[in-house]
Description:
Layout: H1 4-17, H2 20-26, E1 31-32, E2 43-53, E3 62-72, H3 78-91, E4 101-115, E5 122-134
Parallel strand pairs: 1-2
Antiparallel strand pairs: 2-3, 3-5, 4-5
Amino acid sequence: MTAACWALQRSMYQTLSNASELTSLLGGDGIYSNPPPAAEFPFITIGQTVDLDWSTGTEDGNEHSITLHIWSRADSAMEVHEITEVVRNLLHDQALTLDDHELVNLRHEFSQARIDPDGETLHGIVRYRAVTEPMQQAA
């Protein structure tokens, strides 16, 4: 069985990378878990994930917190905000398909835009909360 956290990340990546509106803003395929040293700005990285047990007395489940990072070198934060809004529209409350798991919900928790400590990189932070359950096996 695929780990719920990995299934969720993979489905989020596929959703984002298949969205022409997003790839247009990124100038191509700019979504990474570990960007190459020469990655072209802007790009998105799939960052920290937290996976918690969300089981009840009768049902198994997991709660996930997944953080996406948006990196830009534009002259203003507008690019980060535009990308953040497209990402939000693609993921918030969407019924993504997961291997071996069912997505109960996927909710945008918060977004933030700031200047990175290097003084020239704009950094967007977008966090999602999801709940998953193992897929029910047919009897």
